[in-house]
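Pilot study result, target chain (144 residues):
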Amino acid sequence: MTRSRCLAPITVTGRRRARGMTLIEVLCAILVMTTGLLGLMTLMARASQATMSTDDAQRAASLANELATEMWLQGTVSLSSTTLSAWQTRVADATGMGLPQGTGTVTVDASNVARITITWTPPGPAPANQRTTRQYFTDVRLNN
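Predicted structure:
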């Protein structure tokens, strides 16, 4: 019984082949990891955009609620031009509580229902004329 029959001799060419195969495996692993990390970065960027969009919508709702509360406190849907002008300034102030390129309007119909409409254009990589304009509106009716 000799041991040499059970074990195959290792040759120099076998070692070189194993090293080359390991290098290819490492390159494939790097490629797979890079693709995965790129996908993760894309996912995080989209999640960030969705969060920003939700934040803008919540600010629009808060601004509309602010004006509706003012109408309720004064007991009328017809507010003074000073109150409306100050509110529209807050809507347009993107650095404060307002929205990017935000505008606020109030229309009162014949049945004394006020529609508060807030329109804004979220920032993004597209040119300003190609971005989607967002809109939030609420109706206010006071029963006296």
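One observation from the pilot: The chain has a mean pLDDT of 84. A full batch analysis is planned for the follow-on phase.
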